[in-house]
Amino acid sequence: MAVERVSLTDFATRYSTFTELSSVALGGRIVNVSDEFFAEAFHLLLVEPAPSMKGQFGPNGALYSGWETRRHNSTYDWCIIQLGTSGSIHGFDVDTANFNGNEAPAVSIHALYDADLKDPEHDDARWAEILPQSNLGPDSRHLFRITATPCVNYVKIHMYPDGGIARFKVYGDVSPVHPSSDTPFDLAHVFAGGRILRVSDQHFGIGSNLILPGRGNNMGDGWETKRSRTKGHNDWVILQLGAPGHLEQVEIDTHHFLGNFPESCEIYAIESPADFDWNLATPDDSLWTLILPRTKLGAHRQHYFELENVENRTYTHVRVTIYPDGGIKRVRLIGYKAESTMVEPQPPTSVETSLFSSEPTETITIPVIPLTSADYRPFGQVIQAYDSASKPEDLKVTPANAGTADKFHKLALLSSSYPSEAAATTGISVYQCKPIEDINGGVIVLRTLERHPYTSQAFIPMGSGNADGYLVVVAQNGGDDKPDMTTLKAFLASTSQGISYNAGIWHQPMTVLGKSLDLACVETQIGDGSVADCEILKLVSNSQYILKLL
């Protein structure tokens, strides 16, 4: 699992394009909690920063705006949260504001997806750890970035062993919902996958509020800039549409803004390539098409305008400019979804051994998820040490080395089924792996799978020089004695994790990321280079499979 702690000073640049998936404005809610004796868990999802309640007491003790459990839990406390919308998680903000001496010392975070939105139980077997146990400190915000998850809609936070957390925010990308291409809808809406990419100023209200559902509750849930003192000043926000589209109308809502609405606004649009870096971009008028000339606005009302220069044109991004400053509650960009013009990865060119007979006609994206023993169990075993909270229940652990170590017994068993005449032997080899270079925008095309029909095969990293880990891509064997691509999974393993492939499991050859890495390999082999030891299959199929590192 790749985990990065982010400095609070980098929050704007590292989190600005993500959506707060847990927000109550999107429908985020507390599902269940192990304990909330001192302070109720609903505080975790409140929008406003946690205020100090120093000196205030209730029947159970001091009052806090946050979630606080009773003392001396021997394991951990937990809280289950339903996200406001399904999406891929990229990071967290765990805030222990005002908890000092009673803060949660550490947390881990788990996630799952339930298509029926049936609230999961605490011990649901589908929970997968996405943030390993990580230390916290008192009265401070803790920002974590992780390898992006697949689509999830529930998270569970573990607090070790007890204590308090003021606010908890989950950031990521929305799994968009679009109607058919002949149905008009708000292409900028957060549930459609719309995002705010850049904002000139958001002193009083953040830009991402512009694409939230509904009309909001007060001025605090809109976009509002500071007062300008410069003649000719304007402020602007750049929105990415949830899909390339044909625009027709715009709604500008100044609900609740009475004495601080903008005097006027204008709107530009652009069709931009997928790899354009908006963090480096400037709102250069020469690159944009004017779709709404400068138009006066009023206080506390919904404004509807027909757009210009939109006929037979496709746009991907919109820039709303306000004069000279002020606040807007919502922006709705109504139109129709167009076919994407984004550049897709090119199909593989190898034609050595075909899994299917025709050229690729579709691209299937396989998200790379963190490696856990539960998710990997159908394909083999994960080889690693565990803390007491994350240890699998059926794993035997005993003290060793006169009490200076713990022994995790038989994490992976060796197996082989070679014919007796094959004279196969078991040994340890070392693979000195160079990092993969064929990565384009975090995408790796799956070109080859291999299997070892008669032996399990274990790989154990030697050293921790490769901070980016390695990929483990696996599939079950199908009824035609070829990979069953419906079972294809991709995992990201850290350098503290080894893996063992069960005999006959199809897998991608070792794929190391970032830096070179040595891996010890334990296997049984004949050693003559025959298919009995290793069968290799080049993939050329009706469907192109790509691995997405997010």
From TrEMBL:
Belongs to the allantoicase family. Gene3D superfamilies: Galactose-binding domain-like, Ureidoglycolate hydrolase. Keywords: Hydrolase, Lyase, Purine metabolism. GO terms for biological process: allantoin catabolic process; purine nucleobase metabolic process. PANTHER family: ALLANTOICASE, INACTIVE ALLANTOICASE-RELATED. CDD domains: cupin_UAH. Pfam families: Allantoicase (PF03561), Ureidogly_lyase (PF04115). InterPro entries: Allantoicase (IPR005164), Allantoicase_dom (IPR015908), Galactose-bd-like_sf (IPR008979), RmlC_Cupin_sf (IPR011051), UAH_cupin (IPR047233), Ureidogly_lyase (IPR007247), Ureidoglycolate_lyase_dom_sf (IPR024060). Signal peptide: none annotated. It comes from the Eukaryota. Residues 27-174, 193-336 form the Allantoicase domain. This is Allantoicase. It comes from Crepidotus variabilis. GO terms for molecular function: allantoicase activity; ureidoglycolate hydrolase activity; ureidoglycolate lyase activity. NCBIfam families: allantoicase (TIGR02961). The keyword Lyase applies. It catalyses: (S)-ureidoglycolate = urea + glyoxylate. The keyword Cell membrane does not apply. Homodimer.
